[in-house]
Amino acid sequence: MSADRMSIGEMLAATVPMARTLKLEFLETSAERAVVSLPDQAQYHNHVGGPHAGAMFTLGESASGAIVLAAFGDQFSRAVPLAVGAEIAYKKLAMGAVTATATLGRPAAEVVAELDAGRRPEFPVSVAIRRADGAVTGEMTIRWTLRPVDQGE
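Predicted structure:
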């Protein structure tokens, strides 16, 4: 499949080695929401038999990246998306497969307007990580920026 015909999940799996390694499944990717699943895999368990904290972080960050691609992919000829910070809180024991749902914390049009005005916008992406019974096991906020291509750093 050519790059312009790849889904966002296929593109991330092709370009982000950790997404492939963890066998992340991109269930939904739109400008409004991204849903990504981490299958239950014994080789990525922690000391209590659930998904390792690092695997859960990668799951949440990957969901945030998917929504950024969906919401701002049309801006990538003039700006590079970069994660600039992240916070995670582990709320409950996660066991089995877990799913991350990401949502933008600011309207995409507002972020693009800042870029149009010559500024380097920052925006949060909120992520809820849930186990199969629906309980929230983790919450993340990833701060992203769209760095104009002429502002190399």
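Summary: The longest strand covers residues 136-148.
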